[in-house]
């Protein structure tokens, strides 16, 4: 499998002996063979990973220089499906800025089409719930297309139809920075204006963003609220006639950063029938109640001249112009956060299950964009999550819901 038996035995025994919210007493050690059987039977789906274009330099891929969800790693970890996000970051909202954003998006789309174009390979592009189920039954690696940041669209609502026609089925309106459709949970520095964006530009969704939600419902696309501001998320939930997802968002009550979801958002997503997919990203998982860690992180931000009224460990590093200062900042924050752990990921899953139920939680890694923790650093290590869930007392049926069943239910509902 993906580890030696000895390493896995040590790993699941450690998890079984760790404190957990799901039980008052420690569970018994996990039966590794049972964990493997559950994992191999389930539709194991990652609701969000970034697209890596082969041959282009990247700081986020694995040590082998390849995507963290490339097909061999998927096969090794029995990861059946990944939503691959066509995504761009912040940039100028000008005609040229929109052109370059669309150019990058088209390149990423072409990369996935190329990856799935060989009929003799087991990697296929799927566009529907039925196709996803069929691919899983055939033991194929299924790729779904996602979309993140309507800056790609500029101000052209009709471009949504173009991406849907190309196969995109999961749409998120923002990434870092506001755009013409919606406010982001992470405002950015506006270099042209020489100042930071306001916390809100539209008060949530703009008029154009509201039209986009209606259009996505009409098309039968999955709406993704990850990265939206709280106001924008609440606007989406008030407008959408179908369940929505957060493809890679964690719990703000445990890790208090603007990028994570408040209890109110979690409650409303569940009420809508949707799913929150938790990410193995250290910056979304750290314990914000650790006062010393909080002080040390803020100290690192001050040293790098990052503004203090907006808190997220790694956030705004792209504003640091001096390469040496940037490297010192990133290294310092990384060292403070530590390697992260599967237990931290499971704590966020437990919180959501306890609050809104097993039908409203999933996993979306954000691999290829800085995500990864000890024990789950790429697709080949997906079994470790199943082992951890089993150790915490989740049943086989519950694990199947968390890994892919809940996402599949939403996909069917929006169709």
Q: What is this structure's SSE topology?
A:
Layout: H1 5-17, H2 32-41, E1 45-50, H3 71-76, E2 81-87, H4 95-115, E3 123-125, H5 129-137, E4 141-148, H6 159-165, E5 168-172, E6 189-190, E7 195-196, H7 207-219, E8 222-224, H8 230-239, E9 245-246, H9 263-271, E10 275-278, H10 282-285, H11 291-303, H12 323-337, H13 342-356, E11 361-363, H14 383-391, H15 396-414
Parallel strand pairs: 1-2, 2-4, 3-4, 4-5, 5-8, 9-10, 10-11
Antiparallel strand pairs: 6-7
Helix pairs in contact: 1-14, 2-14, 11-12
How would you characterize this protein structure?
By secondary structure, this protein is an alpha/beta fold. The chain has one domain (5-287, 341-414): TIM Barrel (Alpha-Beta Barrel). It is built from 15 helices and eleven strands. Strands 1, 2, 3, 4, 5 and 8 form a six-stranded parallel β-sheet that branches. It is globular and about 55 Å long. Residues 1-21 have low confidence and may be disordered.
Which CATH architecture? Alpha-Beta Barrel
Highest-level CATH class: Alpha Beta
Using the alpha-carbon principal axes, give the shape.
globular
First-residue to last-residue Cα separation: 36 Å
Q: Based on DSSP secondary structure assignment, what is the total number of beta strands? A: 11
Number of domains: 1
Please compute the radius of gyration using only Cα atoms.
Answer: 20 Å
Q: What are the main properties of this structure?
A:
single chain, 415 residues, alpha/beta, TIM Barrel, six-stranded parallel β-sheet, three-stranded parallel β-sheet, 11 strands, 42% helix, disordered N terminus
What can be said about this structure in brief?
The protein is an alpha/beta fold. Helix content is 42%, strand content 11%. The protein has helices at residues 5-17, 32-41, 71-76, 95-115, 129-137, 159-165, 207-219, 230-239, 263-271, 282-285, 291-303, 323-337, 342-356, 383-391, 396-414, and strands at 45-50, 81-87, 123-125, 141-148, 168-172, 189-190, 195-196, 222-224, 245-246, 275-278, 361-363.
